[in-house]
Write a structure and sequence with these properties.
Layout (H helix, E strand, L loop, with lengths): L2 E5 L2 E4 L4 E8 L8 E6 L6 E6 L6 E3 L7 E6 L4 E6 L8 E7 L17 E2 L3 E6 L1
Parallel strand pairs: 2-11
Antiparallel strand pairs: 1-3, 3-8, 4-5, 4-9, 5-6, 7-8, 9-10, 9-11
């Protein structure tokens, strides 16, 4: 049974930082591109960042470039999202997702292109 478990969310003031973690089990973690999505109330789920499975190529949505960093530690079956200089508009539930195994693409913006999802972790940024 595949599981992705996120942690690290919480309440932070604007300008602060958080690091999200996503631990995978039941899958060959190193073979999957990983992504972080977020969903704010009343909005669609949107991709935030992604990292491929083998070369370290990354993708970031424009609004987080220069502030967020995605990384992975395959030996620990863990993906991370370091979030700095947080803004109130970053408030959302953040989800990690595993893409298609051995995919040649870094990311897809479509949630339906991801095979596995975590349960989400709430990030709230106060102004």
């Amino acid at each position: 049974q595949v599981q992705l478990v996120e942690s690290g969310g919480g309440l932070v003031q604007a300008g602060g930082s958080l690091r999200l973690s996503c631990v995978g089990s039941g899958l060959i973690f190193s073979a999957y591109p990983m992504a972080w999505f977020r969903q704010a109330p009343g909005k669609e789920r949107e991709i935030v960042a992604a990292i491929d499975w083998n070369s370290g190529r990354t993708y970031y949505t424009d609004s987080v470039k220069g502030r967020f960093t995605i990384s992975r530690e395959n030996a620990r079956n863990t993906a991370y999202l370091q979030m700095n200089t947080l803004r109130p508009e970053d408030t959302a539930v953040y989800y990690c997702a595993a893409g298609k195994v051995y995919s040649s693409t870094v990311y897809s913006p479509r949630p339906r292109d991801y095979d596995y999802w975590g349960q989400g972790t709430q990030v709230t940024v106060s102004s």
